[in-house]
Amino acid sequence: PEDYNVEIRHKLSNQPWLLTFLRTFIQIKQRMLYIWITNINISSFDCYNDEDGLSHWRAAPDIICFKSDVLQIVGAIIAIINLVIFFSLSAVINITIFNHNPKNGGLLSCPNGTFASIQNILLFIIIFVMRMFYRWPFWRFLLSFGISVIIVFYLVILQPYYSIMSNFLSSIQWAIFGSMRLCMEIGYLFQKQMNNYVPSIIFIFIGAFLSIAFLVSIYYILQRRRKKMLFLKKGQPYINL
After folding, report:
1. Which UniProt keywords apply (predicted)?
2. Using H for helix, E for strand and C for coil, what is the string for the chain?
3. Given this model, what pLDDT does residue 235 score?
4. Torsions phi, psi for 107 (to 5 deg)
């Protein structure tokens, strides 16, 4: 078996295009399906309480959670097992498979998979919070917005990718998500008080402009931070693309 593994590694090392294809395929598949798979599994045990205190399955309100339907109970158990396996597998993939190209830089090239793993964990928390904290809008907003801010700060201060553009591109989704969450929650509060959808629409546009302002600020802060890091960094310099 050891000789076989050595032979496989030797063949892969002589086929860089194959390594690039496998790495790209796994990353794209994980990014595209991660949220969808997590949501599907959470739906199996996503329940809510009615006025009488009974817990109903959100996918089928006529079913009492973990009581009246055997299929729902079995499905929920399988979903929890799937989440544990999928989450663990994603963490291992993020740690072991990443684009490491310090010589030539490259889009999303990084020295290790630490940031990808942290981002994966925080993304899972956001999905869970958005689904399970439906009746607690304040905590839902606080956690989702707070996680977005943490990730953006991580990208700006630590800059896990070799190039500025890679750090900036990674921060775009979180800056937009955080800005829109902030404005949509404020708009939702006004909507409840005024019983009108107009405030929500207005704050969506405000969130769009706020996202643009944040992205411009993030780009300039990344550049200033990178200059300081170049002066303070000892050893191999960062690559600025």
Report:
1. Membrane, Transmembrane, Transmembrane helix
2. CHHHHHHHHHHHHCCHHHHHHHHHHHHHHHHHHHHHHHHHHHHCCCEEECCCCCEEECCEEEEECCCCCHHHHHHHHHHHHHHHHHHHHHHHHHHHCCCCCCCCCCCCCCCCCHHHHHHHHHHHHHHHHHHHCCCCHHHHHHHHHHHHHHHHHHHHHCCCCCCHHHHHHHHHHHHHHHHHHHHHHHHHHHHHHHCCCHHHHHHHHHHHHHHHHHHHHHHHHHHHHHHHHHHHCCCCCCCCC
3. 44
4. -65, 130
Can you tell me the distance from the alpha carbon of 196 to that of 37, in angstroms, rounded to the nearest whole number? 34
Asked whether residue 7 carries a pLDDT value surpassing 80, the answer given is no
Residue 70: alpha-carbon gap to chain centroid: 33
Residue extents of the structural domains in the chain = 1-97, 135-241
- Distance, in Å, from the CA atom of 102 to the CA atom of 110, rounded to the nearest integer, reads 7
Rg of the Cα trace of the chain?
A: 22
Residue 80 CA to residue 86 CA, distance in Å, equals: 10
**Which residues have C-beta within 8 Å of that of residue 121, sequence separation ≥ 6?**
91
Give the list of residues 6+ apart from residue 166 with CB closer than 8 angstroms, or none. 107, 108, 109, 110, 241
Residue 47 φ/ψ, nearest 5 degrees:
-125, 165
Which tokens sit at 126? 């956001």
**Rounded Cα gap, residues 9 and 6, in angstroms:** 5
What's the one-letter identity of residue 229? M
